[in-house]
Amino acid sequence: MSLKLSIITCSDTRSIEEDSAGARLKELIEDAGHEVLDHIIIKDDKDSIKSNIKAQIDAGADIVLTCGGTGLSPRDVTPDVTLEVCDREVPGFGEAMRAYSLQITGRAMLSRATAGQIGNSLVINFPGSRKAAQENWEAVADQFEHAIEMAHGGGHNHSK
């Protein structure tokens, strides 16, 4: 199953050339045989994050990966906006990413990353560093296809 994914990097300081985490996610998506619909940089602004998530879903993204804005800084609002814009929370993605990353660094407990469902699509928050984005991908990417199949009403497959 080939999926369509979009990457939204939420940063007040990065340009597309400086977005090493988003660039790594793009490589990982393509290496997995999926399509990157879009890779954009936006400001850490609630309205901008909300409108861009909706626009990517409307453009046909099965999964929107946000990148950055998951920490404790006052401007880190990505998880809050994700929960506002989604129909329902899918907390297992954030839990799995933190559990995996905690094996590498105790700082993983500072992540507020979450995920949610909008219709048949998912929004998943990734951290803004290249290393952390890679690690979090490793934690959850093998569940993407099944999650989207389930979101479309597919049956349960317990083999993975």
Tell me about this structure:
The protein has helices at residues 20-31, 46-58, 78-85, 92-102, 130-140, 144-151; strands spanning 4-10, 35-42, 63-67, 88-89, 115-118, 121-126. The two termini are 15 Å apart. It has 160 residues and is α/β, with parallel strands linked by helices. The radius of gyration is 14 Å and the shape is globular. It contains 6 helices and 6 strands. It has a single domain (4-151), classed as MoaB/Mog-like domain (Molybdenum Cofactor Biosythetic Enzyme, Chain A, 3-Layer(aba) Sandwich). Helices cover 39% and strands 20% of the residues. The mean pLDDT is 95. The chain has a 6-stranded mixed sheet with strand order 2-1-3-6-5-4, with helices on both faces. Helix 1 runs parallel beside helix 5 (130-140) and helix 2 packs across helix 3.
Topology:
Elements: E1 4-10, H1 20-31, E2 35-42, H2 46-58, E3 63-67, H3 78-85, E4 88-89, H4 92-102, E5 115-118, E6 121-126, H5 130-140, H6 144-151
Parallel strand pairs: 1-2, 1-3, 3-6
Antiparallel strand pairs: 4-5, 5-6
Give the tags.
160 residues; alpha/beta; Molybdenum Cofactor Biosythetic Enzyme, Chain A; six-stranded mixed beta sheet; 6 helices
Question: What is this structure, in a nutshell?
Answer:
The chain has about 160 residues and is α/β, with parallel strands linked by helices. The chain has one domain: 3-Layer(aba) Sandwich (Molybdenum Cofactor Biosythetic Enzyme, Chain A), CATH 3.40.980.10.
